[in-house]
Write a structure and sequence with these properties.
Order of helices and strands of chain A: EHEHEEEEHEHEEHEHHHHHHH
Low-confidence stretches of chain A: 309-314
Mean pLDDT of chain A: 94
Distance between the termini of chain A: 47 Å
Structural class of chain A: alpha/beta
Number of helices of chain A: 12
Oligomer: homodimer
Radius of gyration of chain A: 19 Å
Strand content of chain A: 15-25%
Shape of chain A: globular
Helix content of chain A: 40-55%
Chain lengths: 314, 314
């Protein structure tokens, strides 16, 4: 069980982990951030958050920040916000902060993260969740939160639990709206309906979300891809209302010229989260015999722009 | 009939028209170039061509260059090398140089150009052709020709003609290899097999040809799209050997980090030749009931990156 004043470890405090970690610190929680890239800067200069829910600054002394998880205390709650492209390092990075009764919450993108963490640390201690937030890291220790912000969390199997409620309360009392899901798998696919087209097209075409939805061609692509994601999970008995795609497109309209994380990764020359966001849904479609030509083409397109250089390709 | 020392007008002397026009001038032909963007510069500084078939310079006095077709002489041979995105200006730009016995050769990209010129000036005087050449305009009056170079020309209907032979002879004796086609429609589609994937993906993903063919994902996309172009023209009784896609991929390997014209147009913020290169083949597939999901998705992708700004979209 998670104690009332838990020690919280955030593994991978980039944009998402950095923002939520900073909100928890701002509200007096005992948080340790693992962020090797920004560690030195944050120790000297603290963190600056520009947020549509209120800007704030964390002075250097207020942030426990680490570049080596082995120097971190064991945590009651481990929040994993690593890029899924670093999932081969999950054991090495998470194990040092895990103790017998730690609860692990992954807020990573896409499919497959709970399974990997469950295999490494025991399925019974893993919860999953999704961050519905427009957020970018604008510099070391600097975060810009421009729209939305909701977290949805849930048990891998079964409905709401006491510990999920406790985590939701931690977030909700720290200016981060958080809901407990009845069905995490539904939630994951619900988020994929948005993530697959906008991350995929954003990275492949190097376009912001507003450019994608401003033309008939873009809307046609988004609708087509959303339809295939919805079809892909139907054999899992996950069903969405007919109006879901248009609803998600409407929610995109308030985001402005938003760069999805995958577009940012492409621009920064970083590895793209292709497998978790596009590869795994495509694999689910295939294994169930669902025909998804747009998804397959999108998968090839993002893999193609992901090749960083000739030397990196086989 | 084309006389032995014809007056030649090149309408739209960008990369392709500029290179071929310059080669004809170099070899003593009476050529008039219409190129409003480079006219002033060429009048002062002439033209510089870097070519894998030999560099050369044309001094200012040697190039007849115009920014208004109404100031050009009537031509025996009119070579049209305008971007197809300017096809709505064909009447205005070509009519001034046409006389009763002018022959018009379009070397423009994709499908539909012979038909438009035929409607405007009479189908009997129009020939079509394709330039198989890696060429970029590197500055005003400056052209870089890096690979290939062949022109293939033909009558819109019927096989080789005397006038096609005469035009081929003009080019071939000016260091531009030129073949006369037995079947122009076959030749057009043969070129589309390459142009659709490499122009489409190059523009959508902003990738050079080497990046597209260096990965399995890229080759899978290229092969898939080529297969759909080949399927699209089958109802027209145009058939290609099974080995054609691999042969074209092999020919791409010598091109290096080549930017297709459509990728250059995207980078320069110019309108993309989407309809001639992708939209018309897709329309042929549709009207004949050929299912081409990759072609449709590619069409949407390039239309999406073609939207120059919010104000330009409806």
């Amino acid at each position: 069980m998670i104690p009332d004043d838990p020690i919280i470890a955030v593994i991978g405090a980039g944009a998402v982990g950095g923002y939520y970690g900073a909100r928890l610190i701002e509200h007096g929680h005992r948080v340790h951030l693992f962020t090797p890239s920004d560690c030195g800067h944050i120790r000297k200069a603290g963190m600056r958050v520009r947020s549509r829910d209120g800007d704030f600054v964390l002075e250097p002394g207020r942030v426990n920040v680490h570049d080596d998880p082995r120097e971190m205390p064991k945590a009651d709650l481990v929040i994993v916000t690593l890029k899924t492209t670093a999932n081969h390092r999950l054991k090495e990075l998470v194990e040092p902060v895990v103790k017998a009764d730690s609860v692990i919450l992954t807020l990573q993108n896409g499919l497959g993260n709970e399974e990997i963490l469950g295999q490494l640390f025991g399925a019974e201690r893993v919860l999953g969740g999704m961050a519905f937030v427009c957020i970018n890291r604008t510099g070391p220790g600097e975060i810009s939160h421009t729209d939305h912000g909701l977290i949805r969390i849930g048990e891998v199997r079964g409905g709401p639990s006491a510990r999920a409620g406790k985590i939701a309360e931690l977030f909700s009392s720290s200016k981060v709206p958080c809901e407990v899901l009845d069905d995490l798998t539904f939630g994951r696919w619900d988020k994929l309906i948005w993530n697959v087209p906008f991350n995929g097209l954003g990275a492949a075409l190097n376009l912001t979300t507003d450019r994608i939805i401003e033309s008939e061609a873009g809307l046609s692509l988004v609708r087509g891809i959303m339809g295939e994601v919805i079809a892909a999970c139907r054999p899992l008995n996950i069903r969405f209302d007919l109006g879901v795609p248009e609803e998600k497109i409407r929610h995109t309209q308030t985001m402005g010229a938003y760069k999805t994380s995958m577009q940012v990764d492409r621009q920064m020359g970083r590895a793209l989260e292709i497998e978790a966001i596009i590869g795994k849904p495509l694999a689910v479609a295939r294994v169930n015999g669902v025909v998804t030509p747009l998804l397959k083409m999108l998968y090839d397109l993002v893999r193609l722009v992901d090749v960083p250089s000739k030397t990196a390709s086989v």
